[in-house]
Inverse folding.
C-alpha cells in the first residue's frame, strides 16, 4: 500500500566512497540533496547510477517513523577546487543529486514492494506562511559583484507581531544567512536557532522566548549567487561595443523568486513598502522601482564593510570604491514586483502627457532602438489613466531591454524588464508583425501597473485576474493607438482560438486553479490563464457593454487599490456597475474547465418574417465524446442576420440545456448566425441547411471577416473531434480560396492547413496535400506579389509574409526560385530583403539548401547585431531537410552561441517536419538531464516538451512518451506531458478515421 501523504525526510544516503550525508527534500517525484558544507545551499547534480536505500522517513508530526526502501538514480559529480572555492569550501567535494521513487510501506510490512512509478508520493501539503509575524516595511541593501557573481545583502524589516510566538518564519532559498537580530524597544534578541529549510524554502528564526506583540525590527545579513538561471537575482551576459563579454545583474521575481535574492515574506498578499539601496561599481547604471533620492561615493573601507560582515573575504567592488544609490520609498506592494538592474545601458526619455517620466534603456549604442517603445509607452499611460480614471501612481516608469530573459517581459512596478526582441525596434531590420507585437507587450505590461500592481491577486489561484485582464486590455489599448492594425480581428486567431484548442482537452484546467506549492505556479502561466482569461473577459465586455465595463473597472481599482483581491471582487464591482448577474455568469466560465458547443438543432420559419431556433448546449470534448452529465454554462448568446451582418439582431443568456429563440424580421432566404464577431467562448454547430445558407455570403464576403473565420474554425474543430469528415473542411476552404482578401481569415485558413499538414506528414500523400495548398493560395499570392506596394495596408504586409511562407513550405517552385534569387543578393549585401519577408525567404532557401546554405545562414547569424534577426535565422534553421545538418542545428541550439532563453525555440523549429520531429524527440531524451538542469522547471521546458511531442500520431508514440516521463519525472511539466499524450492519441484517431477519405478527395481533385 502506498501512503500518498508525504513527508519531511531526513535521509542518509550510503555510497561506497565517500559517505555523504545530506539533508534532503522530497517534492513531487524528485529528491535533492543539499550540500551542507557549501556556503550556498544548492541542489547537487550527480552522474553515476547507484541504488540507495533511504532508511527512514519522518512523518510530519515528527515522531512517527516509517521504514521503506526505494530505488534511485544518483548522479555524482566531483567539484573542482576552483568551483569549490567559489562555493566557499576549501577542499573539493562531491555533489550528489538523487532522483528516486519511493514506495512507502506500512510500518508492519516486512518486505515492502518496490514500485517504480511516475506517480510518486507528493510532498507534504503546501502551507502558506504563518500570519503571526507580518512585514510592514523593508530597508533593503544589495551589493552585487558582477565579476565574482556573488552578492551581499542586508535588510531591516519592520514587522508587526500579531500573535504570541517565539519564532519568525519567512521565505529564503539559495541564500547563506549571516548575523540576525531582532530589536523591539530597547531589547536586542538573537535567534537561538537559524533554520534554513531548502525543502520548504523557508527561514525559521527560533527565539528563547515569545516576542512581544507589536512592532519590531528584524535585521539579517545574507549572501547569494548571481545565478545563471534567469530567476531571482541573476547575471545576464552582454557584449560591450568593444566586443568584450560582460555581465549585468538583473532580477526576475515572479512568481516566487524574490526569496532567492533576500529573505522575505514572498506571498502576494503580504504587501509592504520598500526602501532600496544599491552599492554598485562606478559608471554602472543602477535602477530600481523608484527614482534615486540620494547618491554618494563610498570609501574603499565602506565598500568592503558588507562583505566582511557577511563573513566573506576579498574586496567589495573588485578593489574599486563603490557608489551607493538610495531609491525613494515604494508604495505598499508585493515582493514579486521588486526589481533592480545593474549594468551598462543607454537610454532615451520623455515625459508623458500626464506628467510621468518615461525612459527606455537599451544596450549601449542602441538608444534609438528604444524610440518606438518610448513613443508607445508615453501614449499608453494617459490612455489607461483616462480608461481607469486613476493616474499612474509612481513618478517614473522605466522600460529596459535585458539580454538574458526567460519570459517576454515582467511588469515590475516602475521598472518593466523585457526581452530585447519585445522592446527594440531597428527600422531597417524589424518586421511589421514584430512592431505590432512590441506595442501589445508594452500595452500588456503597463496595464499590469494598475491591474496586478496597484490591485494584486490574493493568491496565485487568481493569477488569471492579472494575466487574463492584461491580455485583454492590451488589445483595447493597441486598437486605440494603431487602428490600422485592426488588432481585434487578430485577437481571435492569436488568443481566442488557441485557448479553445487547449481547453477542449481532458487535461486542461479551469481558469481558477487551486495552486499550492510554488512549483505548480509556473505551469499555470499558460494559454488558459492568459488566452482563455482574456477571451472570457472579452465576452463579458460585450455582455455588459463598454460603458458599464469601464465604470465597474474604476470601482474595482479604486475600492481595492494597494490591496489584494479574489476573482469575486471583480465580479461584484462589474455587477454593481451593470446590474447584470456577472458573478453567476462568469463563475461558470472560470471555475469550470472547458466550454460548450452551442448546437442549433432545428430552425423553423414561422410566417413570412419570423424564425424560431431550438438551441442546446453540451460540453465540447476534443475526442467528440458527449457526457449525459455535461456541466452547464451561462452562455451569453448573440445572433446576427443577413439584414445587418454587423449588428446584433438578438441577445440572451442561455442558462439551461436547451432553449427556443425567436427572431423577428427574418425572411426565408436570410441566414442567421450565432456568435457574430466570434466573441462568445464556445463552438457553434449548425444543421447542414443553415450552413449551406452561408456559402454565398462567404463567397461575396458579405459575411464579416470574423464570422467567416469563426465558421471555418468551428467546423475544423468538429472535424478534429470526429463529428464531421475532414473533406468538408477541405471543400469549405476552397469556397474561401478564390476571393478571400482578409489577413485574419487567411491566418485561420493557414492554421487549419498547418494542422492538416502535420497530420498528413504521417502519410504517403503529403505531396498531394501540398499541391492542394498551392492551388488554394495561388490567387492571393498573385494579387500580393513579392514587393510591398506604396501605401499598402499593414495587414497586406502581414498577409504577404504568411502566404509566401506557406508556399515556400509546400515547395512551390516559383516561390523557391524567387526566394533563392533574393537571398543571394541579400547574403552578398547587395540588396537586403525587407524584414517582413526574411522569415519566409530563409525557410524557403533552407528547405532546398545544403551545407553551403547552412554555413551562409550561420555566418549571417554571427554577424547579426539585432536579437530579432538572430531569432529569425535560428528559428528558420529547422526548415533544412538533410538529416545530418538537422543534427548540427540541434547541437548549435545547445551551444554557447545560442542563449538559453532561445535554445528551446531552435529545437522546436527542427520538430516541425517528420524527420526533424524524430530527431528532436531523440535529442530531447538524450539531453534531458542537461535541459532540466539548465531550466530547473519553468515554462520554457514545458513549451519544449509540448512542441517536440504533440505532433506525433500513433499509440506507440503515446506509450513511449508516457514511459519516458515516468522514468524522468519533472515537476512543473506533468500537465504538459498529459496534454501531449492526449493530443497524440487524438491525432492517431483522426488519421485512422479520415486518412482514406482525404486521400481520395485529394487525388480526385488534383
Ligand atoms: Zn502579464
Amino acid at each position: 500500500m502506498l501512503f500518498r501523504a508525504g513527508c519531511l525526510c531526513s535521509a542518509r544516503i550510503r555510497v561506497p566512497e565517500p559517505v555523504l550525508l545530506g539533508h534532503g527534500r522530497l517534492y513531487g517525484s524528485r529528491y535533492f540533496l543539499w550540500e551542507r558544507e557549501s556556503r550556498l545551499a544548492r541542489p547537487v547534480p550527480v552522474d553515476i547510477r547507484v541504488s540507495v536505500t533511504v532508511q527512514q522517513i519522518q512523518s510530519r508530526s515528527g515522531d512517527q517513523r516509517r521504514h521503506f526502501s526505494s530505488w534511485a538514480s544518483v548522479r555524482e559529480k566531483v567539484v573542482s577546487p576552483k568551483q569549490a572555492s567559489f562555493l566557499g569550501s576549501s577542499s573539493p567535494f562531491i555533489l550528489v543529486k538523487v532522483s528516486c521513487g519511493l514506495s512507502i510501506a506500512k510500518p508492519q510490512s516486512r518486505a515492502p514492494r518496490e514500485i517504480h512509478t511516475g506517480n510518486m508520493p507528493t510532498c507534504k501539503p503546501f502551507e502558506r506562511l504563518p500570519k503571526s509575524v507580518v512585514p510592514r516595511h523593508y530597508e533593503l541593501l544589495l551589493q552585487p559583484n558582477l565579476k565574482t557573481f556573488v552578492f551581499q545583502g542586508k535588510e531591516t524589516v519592520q514587522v508587526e507581531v500579531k500573535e504570541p510566538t517565539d519564532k519568525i518564519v519567512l521565505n529564503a532559498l539559495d541564500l547563506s544567512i549571516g548575523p540576525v537580530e531582532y530589536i523591539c524597544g530597547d531589547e536586542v534578541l538573537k535567534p537561538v536557532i537559524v533554520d534554513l529549510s531548502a525543502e520548504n524554502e523557508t527561514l525559521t528564526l527560533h527565539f528563547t522566548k515569545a516576542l512581544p506583540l507589536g512592532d519590531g525590527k528584524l535585521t539579517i545579513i545574507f549572501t547569494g549567487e548571481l545565478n545563471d538561471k534567469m530567476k531571482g537575482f541573476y547575471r545576464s551576459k552582454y557584449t560591450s561595443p568593444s566586443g568584450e563579454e560582460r555581465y549585468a545583474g538583473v532580477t526576475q521575481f515572479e512568481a516566487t523568486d524574490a526569496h532567492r535574492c533576500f529573505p522575505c515574506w514572498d506571498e502576494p498578499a503580504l504587501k509592504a513598502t520598500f526602501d532600496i539601496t544599491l552599492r554598485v561599481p562606478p559608471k554602472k547604471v543602477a535602477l530600481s522601482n523608484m527614482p534615486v533620492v540620494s547618491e554618494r561615493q563610498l570609501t574603499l573601507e565602506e565598500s568592503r564593510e558588507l562583505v566582511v560582515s557577511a563573513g566573506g573575504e576579498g574586496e567589495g567592488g573588485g578593489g574599486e570604491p563603490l557608489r551607493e544609490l538610495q531609491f525613494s520609498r515604494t508604495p505598499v506592494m508585493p515582493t514579486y514586483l521588486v526589481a533592480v538592474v545593474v549594468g551598462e545601458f543607454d537610454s532615451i526619455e520623455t515625459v508623458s502627457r500626464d506628467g510621468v517620466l518615461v525612459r527606455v534603456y537599451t544596450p549601449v549604442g542602441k538608444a534609438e532602438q528604444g524610440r518606438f517603445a518610448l513613443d508607445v509607452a508615453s501614449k499608453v499611460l494617459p490612455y489607461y489613466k483616462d480608461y481607469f480614471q486613476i493616474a499612474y501612481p509612481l513618478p517614473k516608469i522605466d522600460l529596459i531591454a535585458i539580454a538574458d530573459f526567460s519570459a517576454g517581459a515582467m511588469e515590475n512596478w516602475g521598472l518593466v524588464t523585457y526581452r530585447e526582441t519585445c522592446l527594440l525596434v531597428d527600422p531597417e531590420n524589424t518586421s511589421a508583425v514584430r512592431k505590432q507585437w512590441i506595442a501589445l507587450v508594452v500595452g500588456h505590461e503597463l496595464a499590469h501597473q494598475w491591474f496586478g500592481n496597484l490591485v494584486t491577486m490574493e493568491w496565485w489561484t487568481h493569477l488569471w485576474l492579472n494575466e487574463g485582464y492584461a491580455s485583454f486590455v492590451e488589445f483595447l489599448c493597441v486598437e486605440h493607438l494603431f487602428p490600422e492594425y485592426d488588432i481585434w480581428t487578430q485577437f481571435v486567431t492569436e488568443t481566442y482560438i488557441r485557448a479553445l484548442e487547449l481547453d477542449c482537452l481532458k487535461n486542461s484546467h479551469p481558469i481558477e486553479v487551486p495552486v499550492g506549492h510554488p512549483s505548480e505556479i509556473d505551469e499555470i502561466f499558460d494559454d488558459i490563464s492568459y488566452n482563455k482569461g482574456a477571451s472570457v473577459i472579452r465576452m463579458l465586455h460585450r455582455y455588459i457593454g463598454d460603458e458599464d465595463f469601464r465604470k465597474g473597472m474604476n470601482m474595482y481599482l479604486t475600492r481595492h487599490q494597494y490591496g489584494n483581491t479574489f476573482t469575486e471582487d471583480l465580479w461584484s464591482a462589474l455587477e454593481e456597475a451593470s446590474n447584470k448577474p456577472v458573478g453567476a455568469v462568469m463563475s461558470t466560465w472560470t471555475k469550470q474547465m472547458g466550454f460548450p458547443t452551442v448546437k442549433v438543432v432545428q430552425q423553423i420559419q414561422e410566417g413570412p418574417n419570423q424564425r424560431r431556433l431550438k438551441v442546446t448546449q453540451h460540453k465540447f470534448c476534443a475526442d467528440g465524446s458527449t457526457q449525459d452529465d455535461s456541466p452547464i454554462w451561462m452562455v451569453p448568446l448573440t445572433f446576427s442576420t443577413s439584414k445587418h451582418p454587423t449588428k446584433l439582431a438578438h441577445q440572451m443568456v442561455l442558462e439551461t440545456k436547451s432553449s427556443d429563440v425567436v427572431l423577428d424580421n427574418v425572411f426565408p432566404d436570410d441566414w442567421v448566425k450565432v456568435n457574430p464577431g466570434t466573441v462568445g467562448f464556445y463552438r457553434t454547430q449548425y444543421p447542414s441547411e443553415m450552413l449551406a445558407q452561408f456559402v454565398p455570403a462567404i463567397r461575396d464576403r458579405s459575411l464579416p471577416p470574423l464570422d467567416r473565420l469563426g465558421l471555418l474554425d468551428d467546423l475544423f474543430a468538429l472535424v478534429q473531434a470526429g463529428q464531421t469528415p475532414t473533406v468538408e473542411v477541405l471543400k469549405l476552404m476552397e469556397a474561401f480560396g478564390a476571393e478571400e482578401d482578409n489577413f485574419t481569415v487567411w491566418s485561420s485558413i493557414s492554421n487549419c492547413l498547418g494542422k492538416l499538414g502535420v497530420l498528413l506528414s504521417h502519410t504517403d500523400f503529403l505531396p498531394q496535400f501540398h499541391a492542394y495548398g498551392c492551388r488554394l493560395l495561388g490567387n492571393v499570392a498573385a494579387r500580393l506579389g513579392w514587393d510591398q506596394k506604396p501605401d499598402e495596408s499593414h495587414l497586406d504586409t502581414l498577409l504577404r509574409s504568411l502566404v509566401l511562407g506557406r508556399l515556400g513550405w509546400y515547395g512551390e517552385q516559383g516561390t523557391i526560385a524567387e526566394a533563392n534569387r533574393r537571398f543571394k543578393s541579400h547574403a552578398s549585401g547587395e540588396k537586403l530583403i525587407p524584414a517582413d519577408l526574411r522569415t519566409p525567404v530563409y525557410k524557403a532557401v533552407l528547405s532546398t539548401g545544403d551545407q553551403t546554405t547552412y554555413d551562409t545562414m550561420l555566418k549571417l547569424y554571427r554577424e547579426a547585431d539585432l536579437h530579432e534577426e538572430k531569432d529569425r535565422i535560428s528559428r528558420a534553421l529547422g526548415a533544412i531537410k538533410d538529416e545530418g545538418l538537422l543534427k548540427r542545428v540541434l547541437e548549435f541550439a545547445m551551444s554557447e552561441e545560442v542563449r538559453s532563453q532561445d535554445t528551446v525555440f531552435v529545437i522546436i523549429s527542427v520538430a516541425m517536419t517528420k524527420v526533424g520531429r524524430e530527431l528532436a524527440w531523440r535529442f530531447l531524451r538524450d539531453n534531458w538531464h542537461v535541459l532540466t538542469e539548465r531550466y530547473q522547471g519553468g515554462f520554457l521546458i514545458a513549451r519544449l516538451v509540448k512542441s517536440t511531442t504533440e505532433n506525433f500520431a500513433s499509440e506507440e508514440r503515446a506509450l513511449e512518451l508516457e514511459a519516458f516521463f515516468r522514468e524522468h519525472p519533472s515537476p512543473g511539466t506533468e500537465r504538459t506531458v498529459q496534454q501531449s499524450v492526449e493530443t497524440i492519441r487524438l491525432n492517431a484517431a483522426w488519421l485512422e478515421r479520415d486518412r482514406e477519405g482525404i486521400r481520395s478527395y485529394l487525388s480526385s481533385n488534383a
Notes: Residues 1-79, 91-123 have pLDDT under 50 and may be disordered. Residues 174 and 278 are 20 Å apart (CA to CA). The pocket of zinc ion is lined by residues 411, 444, 448, 467, 470 (CB under 6 Å). The first strand starts at residue 12 and ends at 13.
